[in-house]
Every structure is written in structure tokens, then in C-alpha cells.
Amino acid sequence: MKGVVFTEFFELIEELHDYEMVDRVIQESNVESGGNYTSIGSYDFQELVKLLITYSNISGNSIDEALRLFGHKLLKTFRSGYAAFFEPYDNARDFLKTVDNYIHVEVYKLYPDAELPSIRVEDVDDNSFRLIYSSSRALGHLAFGLIEATFELYKEEYTIEMKSTSEKGDEVTFLCKRI
Amino acid sequence: MSQLDLLNRRIEREILARKTAERILEEKALELHHNNVQLQDLNRELEEKVRQRTEELELSRQAYKGLVENAGDVIYNLDRNGCFTYVNPAGQKILGIPAHTLHGKHFSEVLHPDNREEIVRLHHLTLRAKKELINLEFPVTSLDGRTTWLGQKLNVHYDEAGKLEHITGVARDITEIRNIQERIRKSEEKYRGLIENMELGLLEVDTNDKIVRSYDGFCRMMGYEQEELIGKDPKSLFLDEEDISFMEQQEADRKKGLHNVYEVQMKHKQGHKVWMLISGAPVMNDLGVVTGSMGIHYDISEQKKLEADLIRAKKEADDARQAEKEFLAQMSHEIRTPLNAVIGMTNLLSDTQLNPEQETYVQDVKHAADVLHGLISDILDLSKIEAGQMELAPSLVNIHQTVVMMCRTMKVKAEENSNQLDYFIGDKVPQLMRLDRNILNQVLLNLIGNAIKFTHKGKITLYLDTQIKEDGACLLQVKIVDTGIGIPESKLPDIFEKFKQADGRNTHKKYGGTGLGLPICKKLVELHGGNIHVESETEKGSTFRFELKGQLADRNSSGQLSAADGTSGASVDFTKLKFLIVEDTFMNQRYIQSILKRWSSDSELANNGKEAVELSENERFDLILMDMQMPVMDGYEATRVIRADKTNPNHRAPIIALTASALLDDRRKALAAGMDEHLTKPFTPDQLKAAIQTQLSRSGESNPAERVPLPLAFRVTKVKQEHIDMYFGGDMDYAKEMVLEFLRSLPSERENIGRLIQSKDSTALSNWLHSMYPVVAMLGAPELSKEIKTKQLTVNESEWTDDLVLWSEQLDIALSDLGDELEKWVEGQVA
Q1: Alpha carbon of B508 to those of B317, B379, B503, B504, B511: distances in Å?
Q2: What CATH number is given for B391-565 in this structure?
Q3: What pLDDT score was predicted for residue B705?
Q4: Residue B819: exposed, middle, or buried by beta-carbon count in 10 A (0-12, 13-18, 19+)?
Q5: What residue ranges of chain B have pLDDT lower than 70?
Q6: Contacts B1 to A, Cβ<8 Å
Q7: Which residues contact B609 (CB under 8 A, 6 or more apart)?
């Protein structure tokens, strides 16, 4: 897992709470790396899981909620760091369609060892489409947050119906309808 | 937990994270450095490769450029607007325009003005149809006005959207080929035009016998339009049923590649017939396969008509000539037969006991008959000469002997007028000359007779000389000088004219004669290639000169002298002879019988040919005297029957023809029928005796009836037709001609054998045999030929032996038999 995810996660906790909360999560999670993450490093995904569980226990916020918020946080980071990917499009659906076909392709060029989810967009009609997320990480709620944040970014209002289509949660379908 | 601890931990985490990041960055930098070095290496390699490829490309480009620049063909590029972007030197040369001027020029500018519009139009059509490959032939004009024909191949390149990009052209100078093609075309036109103008009609037919082309000339001849004939079968259109198979034969020949020329009648459209001379030849393609035939037709209707007219005219003329001949023969027969009887009977009568008065009457009758006989002979002779029926019959003549005999005969007459007759023969005059004996005798007789007649108590002198001409001919020059009454000068020019005696009526009254003698002499002399002149002075005498053109005798030919010269003629004992007289006229029968009786010879009488055949079958006669014109069976037929029947004891007996006709034709006919001699009626007992003696001495002392049987090889029973076919290739006319020639020469050849045997000259005999056996083989007697050949070889090697005498006698018989068989064969051919 890319270090940026860990640094962004700690930034999110600090925004929501304070650095003390960050400190507690690090100490109580007792992660192998010691929690000294740098955005350009790579770390074991299990450390993020431990950190999430720890954070959930201490804050009382659910893991799903934490991931959803993390999705919002990550999209902001992507938007400011990689604006060029967003600017060509004026709506969320068109942008989302480019994630798998274009953005992830570019990511792999920089980080050949990256492990990225698959994002497939299927049109239903003019006002609704279906987004199928699949990943061994089963971070469906992180995806939910990212989708929500995307609609917000393009100032569009959609209802998002999330439905897990596998038991392990490694494939999730989001039905998005324009309000 | 103090805020300070928290801050310290945070700072410591940040530092650790920073260090981790720095380490990672350092690793990344190193990695980048390595990558950079590798990239630089790779770049260098690639640069080197690019350089090499560029170099190779340049070499290749140079090579191709060289090819294009040096190519004999024109190579050029046009841009999408049709303007030149490249023209190779060959193109520049043909156009006479340098490259820099040419580039950017539109292609239409170099086209020949006559074709410009059409080529540009074709160009546009091509582009519109998006064709990629075009073949074109058109002329271009160079700057200095030369026109060059180019055969072009254009590659048109289009882009993906189908828009024209550029055109590549390869062109070849085909001016020479075009010129040759043009020349061939013009030449063909010229000859076709020639033929058409020559009133010849051309017709071209394919192998299915359908007309593929008919030319104007032919259409004009047959009255058709060209379109009417195409695809038609010329045979059913133009030919009658009976000509079709003939034409099919010609066509079959043509299909074999043979040329042929033939005549055939063709139907005109109007229905009438046109005679065509057709020269046909097969038409072949480049591979030599016959694709049809071409016939050149020439209308020969006019010529055909002319030909038919000529044939008719010739037939009419021939018929007229034949009628005239027959009339002459008939006249001759009709007049001479009774006259013969008168003269003969007068001769017999004068041998009887007569009182002086009767003697005078008989002499008068005899004289009158002689005059009449002379007159008729002269008239007939003149008619014959004028009708062109008198032909030269040259033979070897003993000149000296002839003159001596003539003078001895005439001496008696000369003395009756108290004349002296002398002769002088020049030193150069040869003993023997080849000329017509009868003409010489007749002219001498006439001129000497005249001289005696018109001279009294004078001298008649005969001079003979010869002159050799450049062409080898020998002129016999005769001069007869008398001291008689002469001829008035005014009459001299007419003396050789018919019925113009020197003194007209007076002369006739006083001297008699028909006035035909000199004209006949003139004609005869002229016939013999000579001329006759007279010089005269009244009361002093006349000199007649004439020449006859003859030949000197070959040195070896003296043996060919015939019995008529008196050199042979062994005495014949007439008392032992028996004759068969075949004669239908009572008076003639009596005349001949009484002559023979006077010679104490025995004779039998047959009234016609049929009786003669019957008598000849039962008894052998020594000689047969045969009249020609008889009822029931004529003399020709009877002779053929007797000769043809080998069982007839007389089939080789000598036969003398007795005819009233002096025509050469009749003599020929008699000899062809197998007779040995020909005697013209009326004849004197001496003439008959001489003829009989000649025949009997010729057939030799040995009696044919007593000869030993012939060896097998000599027995000629039938002519072998297959041999004749083999040698003459089925050309029976030619074969017949050869057979007749052989038959003509047979008597003299048979004489040759006898002479050679007598001379015992083995070399000469061998030579003669050598010349004989091929002829005999050709004429259908192979066994006989083989026998002659075998003998020839032994004769050549061995000395003379007496058994050759027997052998040659047998050969003589065999040849005679072969002659008989060949005569039968000739008759078979006529039938």
C-alpha cells in the first residue's frame, strides 16, 4: 500500500480530531513500521487495517464511515495534485469512465508494483449509471466516499445505492441516479 | 501525557519518515542515474543504426536513380495536377526539353496537337474511374517538332481517401514499330488495291467454308453486295451440283496447305454463268495453322467463249482438210483404177499377135493412156503439194547411181529425138546423201524430159555439184543445159506458173503435156529447201538450175541403203514362188495374174480381205499382194488379222500393199497395219518385180516355215501392260507415242541385225544390243529384254561365234512378234 494513503489517513484523523488522536492510533495499533510513514514509501496493507480498527475503537466512528470520509479526503488530494485528469470533463460520469482506462494506466507507469482496484462504468440511461468496484482490498466504502466526493466536485446531485455483490465484499455495485 | 512528549514523538516520526523518504529518493536517484546511462548507450546505438540505414538508403537510392537515369525507356512522374515532377534523361531526349524546363509543365503541353484533346479526355476518364494501371499509345512532339510515338504504362497512385496523389509513367519509343506497321498496312492496301483494280475478285473463306470477306471486285463480278455474302457458303451459292465435288477436292488440297489453280463455272446473282479462273491458297495464322483460304477470281468467260469458237473453227478447218484429203484419195482411186486396167491390158495386148494396124491402135491407146496417167499424176501431185500433204521423206540416196540410172533410162528417149545426153558429176559430190529420193527423181525426170522434148538433134548435158553450208547442210546443185528451141524472154517469168506453157496452145499441140511439170518441180524443189531458175535464149537453148538441201550421210550409215538403190536384190527364182493376190477389181485381178503367169509363178486369188484371211489360214504363200480398198473386209483389216494370228502360216509372210492412192497417209497406214511395202497403182511389171525381189531377199534365204522352234525367252505372246505402266507412269498417250516410234524404226532395226551378223563385228553388235534391251523392257517384254542383255554381256567378252547367227535370227523373229503384239496393243489403246 502506497505511503501516501497512510499519510493522508493520518492527516484526515488530525483534521477530524487532533494529532493526539493520531498519536494514540499509532501507539495502540503497534504497527511494525512504527507509524513513521512517508508518502513515497510502500507499506503493508494490514497496517492500514490495524490503524482503521484502532481508530474506530477509539473514536467510536465506524470503519465504513471512516473509509467514506477518507474517500472524500483522498479525492481532494487527487484534485489538487492531479487536476489535469479532472479538467477535461464537465460531469462525473465521463470522468469516472476514464479511471480504469486512463488514470490507472498512468499510475501503473509510475508505480509498477501498485495494486489498484477495477472501476467499471455501465450506462443505464441518461440519468443513471452503474459503477462496479472490484478489489481484493474490499474497500467498498472508500470507493463510496470517492464517488460522493466526485459528484460534489462536478456539482451534481446523485443518489448512490451501494450493493455488495459478493460475500467477501470484493465486488460492490453502486447504482447512481440523478436527482 | 504532555503536549511536549506528543510533539517530540511527532517530530521524531517526521524525522524518521523524512529519512526513510530520503533513503528511498537516493535509491531512486541512483536507479535513475543507471537508467540514464543505459538510455544514453541505447541512444548511441540507435543513432549508429540510423546512420547506417541512412547510408544504405542513399546507396540504394543512388542505384535506383542510376537505373532510372540510364534507362532506355522514358520514366516520369506527374503530380496530382498532371504536371511533371520528374522526367528521366531518355524522356528529356525524346521531348528535346531539359529537365528544369520540363518540371512543372503540364503533360498535355508535350502531346501532339492532333491527339492532345483525346489523350487529355482519356486521362480524365481514367482518373474518374479510379483506374490504377493504364496502357496507352500516343504521339508526343519535341521542342524541335519531331513526333515520337510512345507506348505508355501509367501507374496511378491514390491516397487513402481516394484522392489522386501522383502518377508514375513508363514509356517506350514505338515510332519505328508504328512506322513498320503503317508501312505493312499501306503495302497491304496497295496490293489489295492493285488486285481489285486488275479486275480480280478476292474472296476469303474460313475453315467452315463460310465467307469471311468478299472484296469489291468479286462482288462486282458476281452481282452481289458485300453484306449479302458474309457468312454464306460459297459452294451452295455459286456452284452447280455437279461442280461441288470438284470444288471440295480443291478445298481439301488447300487445307493441306497446297496452292492450286483451276477453272470452274459460277452462278451470277442474275442467274447466268461466269467462267472463273480461280487461284486458291490457304490462309495461315502466325503459328502456321490454316485458318481459311483466299481465292483470287478472274473472269475468263470471254476467253472461254473464244476458246470454244477456236476449237469449233479448228474442227471445221480440220474437217474440211480431211474431206479434201479423202476427196483426193477417192479421186485418185477412182481414176487410177480403171486407168490401171487400161494401161495393164494394153501392155498385155501388145504382147499378143497383132497385125500392123492393130499394133498402131494399141500404141495410140498406150500413148493416150500414158498422157492421161501423167496428167492425173501431175494434178494430184500439185493438189497434194498445195494442200500441204506432200511431206519430205529423206533417206540415203546414192547420187551417182541415181544420175547414171536416170540418164540410162532417158537415153532411149533422147535418141528418139536424135539428141545426145551426157552428164558430169563434180569431184566433191559424195556418193551418198540424205534427201528425198522421189523429189530428186521427179524433178530430174521432168527437166530432162522437157529438155529432150524441146531439143532436136542437139545436146542435153547434166551437171552435178555440191556445196556444204555453214549449218552442215549439203546443197545438191543440178544444172540441165539443152540446145533446144529455147523460151522467149517474155514467157520466162510465167514458166513456173500453173497451166502456162511457153507458147500456150501451140506448144501443147506440138509437144503435149499438161503444163504442170515445171510448177510441180518448183513446188517440190521449194519443199526441199531449194530453188529453181531458168535462163534461155530462143533457138539457142535453155539452162535450168535447181538446188536441193540435203545432209551428208554419216560414215557408218551406208548399210542403211535400201534395196531400191539396186545395191541388193539377190536374184529370186520366181518359178518356185506362190503368191496370194487379194483384189476386188476384175481387170486388176487379170492384170496381176497374167504378169505372174508370165514369170511362171503360181498364184491364188482372193476377192476381198475375208477370203484372203481364209485362204492364208490353209496355205503358206511366199508373198501376198493386197489391195487396200475392198468390200467385206479391206486390206488393212485383213493384214492385221493375218499378222495377229500366230497359228496362221502366213503371219510373217511379206505383204505388199497395192493402192490407188499416192498419199503419204495411206502408205503410213499400210505400214502401220503390218504391211512390208507399198506400191501405187498403176504399176509396171518391172515395178512389181522390184518390190517382190526386195521383200523376198530381205526375209532371207531360210524359209521361215522351216525354222527350229523358238527358245522360251524369244516367245513373245503378249505385251506386259504392267511393265508399260511402270515405265510410263500410266501416261498411255506417251506410251503409245513410244510404241509407234518403235514400230516405225523396227524394220530398219531388223535390217541392222542382219547387217551386224554379216559383218561379224562383235563390238558393233554389242553396242546395238545394249541400245535395244532397255527399249524392249519398256515396251512390255521383260524376258526378251533380259535375254538380249545377257547376250550383250557375252558378246562383249567373247570372240565371234557362229551360234550368234542362229541367235540373232531368233531375235529377229522375236522382234517381229513383239512388233505384231505392240500393234495389237496400239489397237487396244485406240479402242
Answers
A1: 37, 16, 8, 7, 5
A2: 3.30.565.10
A3: 36
A4: buried
A5: 1, 257, 329, 387, 389, 498-514, 554-571, 660-665, 698-713, 796-802, 830-831
A6: 20
A7: B582, B626, B630, B632, B633, B634, B635, B637, B638, B641
Nearest Cα of chain B lies from the Cα of A39 at a distance, in angstroms, of 8
Residue range B712-830, CATH number: 1.20.120
Tell me what pLDDT residue B120 has. Answer: 85
For B509-544, b/e burial (b = at least 16 CB within 10 A) is eeeebbbbbbbbbbbbbebbebebebebeeeebbbb
**pLDDT confidence of residue B507:** 61
| A36–B16 CB contact, under 8 Å | yes
Give B5→chain A minimum CA distance, Å: 10
At residue B501, the pLDDT reads 57
Class of domain B574-702 as given by CATH: alpha beta
Domain map of chain B by residue range? 1-70, 71-173, 180-301, 391-565, 574-702, 712-830
pLDDT tens for each residue of B652-678? 888 998 876 655 567 777 777 778 888
The pLDDT value recorded for residue A14 is 92
pTM exceeding 0.90: no
| Confidence (pLDDT) at B505 | 54
Mutation pick from B2, B6, B15 vs chain A, by most beta carbons of A within 10 Å, is B6
Residue type, B330: Q
Average pLDDT of the residues of chain A? 90
What ipTM does the predicted assembly reach?
0.81
CATH code of B180-301, in short, is 3.30.450.20
Residues B16, A34: C-beta atoms closer than 8 Å: yes
Same CATH topology for B71-173 and B180-301: the answer is yes
Closest Cα of chain A to B28: distance in Å?
A: 11
Radius of gyration of chain B from Cα atoms? 55
B556-to-B390, B430, B748, B753 alpha-carbon distances in Å? 29, 14, 14, 15
C-alpha span between B645 and B824 (Å, rounded): 11
